[in-house]
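note to self: the first set is below, dont mix up w the second
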Amino acid sequence: MYRANAAAFHESLHGVSDVTTGIAQDHADAPIAQTETIGHYLVLAAGLDDVTPTDFTNAIENGTDPSPASIAETRQLLLDKKVGVLLYNPQTEDKVSREMRSAAESSGIPVVEVFETLPEGLDYIQWQTRTAESLATGLDSAS
């Protein structure tokens, strides 16, 4: 039973990887930004280029305030439309991340919400598939 369940789970993961493979084919090396590195593995699997300043994402990851320079640099990426989407974690929302979301939205850049915990009513595969599909949709609309 365990092996059958593991095999079924492994097979269901192909749905997620099919979406990320499609993103990589359609949007190879497309620049994106993140309010934090929550989507790191998704970005890697999809072959995207995270151009968010490292100082910005490191500060957010460490629970500290990003420097004014990294905030300005990240905001400018969004205002200048230098990225296709903004990956955004609404579960760790703060003043700075809301400001980045606002800059993206005002520039017409799609905001893709990426959650760090399993949303209620979804299983793991549904969660990951929907996140990857949202990223694909955002990038498609930005093209």
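second set (the one i keep forgetting abt)
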Amino acid sequence: MNVIPPALTNLIDAFSSLPGVGPRTAERYAYWFVRHDNASAIKLAKSLNELADGIGYCKKTFALVPAGQEFSDLYTDPKRDKTVVAVVAEPFDILAIEKTEQYGGTYHVLGGLVSPIDGVSPEQLHIHELINRIDEDKVVEVILATNASVEGESTALYIQQQIGQRNVKITRLARGLPIGVDLEYADQISLGRAIEHRQTLNSQESAT
């Protein structure tokens, strides 16, 4: 005997699969659509259907771009400094930094962080492409803007090792950021100060 119609059960299961959404929250979301007119459900369904075909990745920075667009506007904009690259874990970290209005360089999205426990190895991230960018764009500074977590620190250290002896200044966001807080959720003031007071991790600058 079905207490809940299969269509509603499927919707609850779909919401439950989202990060941070528990069973009770999923039920509330699903029931909200039941109680309201179909326009809201149709709008959500349309947005989800368009998601796969409407989004692409920049071939250089791996930031999100409209489908069919090769490069991010933040990369092609002549006002942006291509010789300075902020390395972030996920695309929405870019939005967090842009809101501070303290940064005028470009970005490089890794697509995650090195995490052996979760089965994420360096080879699965866009680290090799980053090294190529450093050479191709004659990058002078790499800002390691990964989260202040074990995974974020491990990833930053690995990237630093891969850059090796290249004549590139490597900096890390200042520790104005609370430990364990994802970049995406950091407040704008703290993040802005972290960018402004970023710390040098190597001595390449003094060697030039």
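remember for set 2: DSSP finds nine helices and seven strands in the chain.
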